Amino acid sequence: MNKNLNRRNFVKTAAVGGIGLGLAGNFTSLYGKSIPEGKRIGIIGLDTSHSVAYTKTLNSPDAGPEFSGFKIVAAYPKGSNDIKSSVDRIPGYTEEVKKYGVEIVNSIEELISKVDVVLLETNDGRLHREQAIPVLKAGKRMFIDKPVAASLTDAIAIFDTAKKYNVPVFSSSSLRYIAGAQEIAHGSIGKVLGADTYSPSPIEKTHPDLFWYGIHGVETLFTLMGKGCKSVSRTFTDNTDVVVGVWQDNRIGTFRGIRSGKGGYGGTAFGEKGIQTLGEFKDYNTLLIKIIEFFNTGKVPVPAEDTLEIFAFMEAAQVSKLKKGASVDIESVMAKAKKNLKK
Q: What is the tens place of the pLDDT at every residue in 42-75?
């Protein structure tokens, strides 16, 4: 009989009998052994669906070899204090991950003592700096989900702290791995001469506009175009954003943020050898595989300087909005953020 089928039947039977993952609350009991040191993941923040999605994938008995045996063993549920959509999720998501054998702990310090690496998943970027620092001081490799922070200044501070303690850390939107983006970035249509991307971009009053959700489409744009944006201008209406970036070599990239009508993710790249439209976003697994590779090797798939330029682009877009669409120099925005950091 198929071994995988036998294992699935065992899980189902055990759960009904009260000794499975969900009712026992002990992930290691299913396998009869502890998770090996180095493979234990902790989550900070159960106010986002990403936490549940990653737990379901990694803690499944059928998790594939691409996940290298890593398991989520503990979570500190605290997320946003005042973003209602996030706060309201925490109780339900906490119960959901407990079904997969995840221990709920009372502090980040307690979490750190039980895990080897960390997923910082808190939906509220305003908390990321204070939540990230104890992890970095403890020397734990960490993935920070979008947004890295709710300001460019805090994002710089996080990466500076990681450098100070010599701890690898990276952040990425899952849309960096939308169908076709990596192929284009690696030359499928030659040098990318320009690109247009789009994504939903609802506004959350606690964050600069694009930091909350528009970051998905902005990161897609930078995945296609690469670094080197020098200036940003933004046209804003209640229903739509159009943000135009001019790169150092005079290439132009645009992001459209959608706030009415049908939403979606995608874009088009214009290259030396062809024009290519991106495919659909499918799931989080491609990013999760990159995270696991990072946990294994310590090699970051997205350098800090790439992420910081994305955040400088979004902060420049915020300034442009305040200036009624005027062009804003990226270097000036970065310099101001670094100056704020020294205060």
A: 999 999 999 999 999 999 999 999 999 999 999 9
Tokens, residue 78: 């605290």
Domain ranges of the chain: 3-123, 175-342
Q: Name the residue type at position 188.
A: S
3-state helix, strand, coil in the chain (%, to 5): 45, 20, 35
Q: Which alpha helices (H) appear in 115-214, and where do they start and end?
A: 128-137, 152-164, 181-185, 209
Strand order in the sheet with 103-104: 103-104, 71-76, 40-44, 117-120, 141-144, 169-171
Domains 3-123 and 175-342 share a fold: no
pLDDT exceeds 70 at position 148: yes
**What amino acid occupies position 79?**
G
Structure token pair of residue 21: 């993952």
User: Domain 175-342, CATH 3.40.1360.10 — does that match?
Assistant: no
Fold of 3-123: Rossmann fold (3.40.50)
**DSSP letter for each residue of 66-133:** GGTT-EEEEEE----SS-HHHHTTHHHHHHHHHTTTPEE-S-HHHHHHH-SEEEE--S-GGGHHHHHH
CA separation for the pair 297, 288 (Å, rounded): 14
Please give the Cα distance from 72 to 140 (Å, whole number): 15
Tokens of 332: 């000036």
For 130-146, the pLDDT digits (tens) are 999 999 999 999 999 99
Q: Please state, in angstroms and rounded to a whole number, the distance separating the CA atoms of residues 191 and 74.
A: 44
Nearest alpha carbon to residue 274 among 193, 219, 175, 196: 193
